[in-house]
Amino acid sequence: MMETKEHGKLDAAPAHLPSHETPLDAPIHTTDDEFDQVIKQHPNVIVDFWAEWCAPCRAIAPMIDDLAKKYAGKMTFVKLNTDENPRVPQQYMIMGIPTLLFFKDGKLVDQVVGAMPRGPFEERVKKHLA
User: Fold this and answer.
1) What's the CATH number for 23-129?
2) Is 54 in the active site?
3) Given 57, 75, 88, 94, which residue is catalytic?
4) Is the pLDDT of residue 101 over 70?
5) Cα–Cα distance between 74 and 79 in angstroms, integer?
6) In 10 A of CB 97, how many CB atoms?
7) Is the pLDDT of residue 100 over 60?
8) What does the pLDDT look like over 19-69, one tens digit per residue?
9) Active site residue: 28, 39, 54, 78, which one?
10) Can you give the residue ranges of every domain in the chain?
11) 43: how many CB neighbours lie within 10 A of its CB?
12) Are 102 and 92 in contact (CB under 8 A)?
């Protein structure tokens, strides 16, 4: 939120679609409608398909947040709630969550299904940045 001088109130900034020129140190929360634009706007993207009720999704959330900070400016992390946004998971045939899809220049290049430990997952991230 930011305050505007003209109105003296808080206006929501369009934070859900930041430019890839600004390093993101936290995951972007996206929707079915914004998904394609977010994927095309950032050169390296990992999408975390999750749901509130999913314990393994909640278990990896701190790792995703940490890696978003660590790789800010190199890899963009995106979260998509599958309960609220069913179209994109169907499009990519997501059968279980958490599922993490890796995109490079808008193209799907890798996926991880299930909660992977940080060490092997971070090695996978580094591989895609090499």
Assistant:
1) 3.40.30.10
2) yes
3) 57
4) yes
5) 17
6) 22
7) yes
8) 444 567 899 999 999 999 999 999 999 999 999 999 999 999 999 999 999
9) 54
10) 23-129
11) 13
12) no
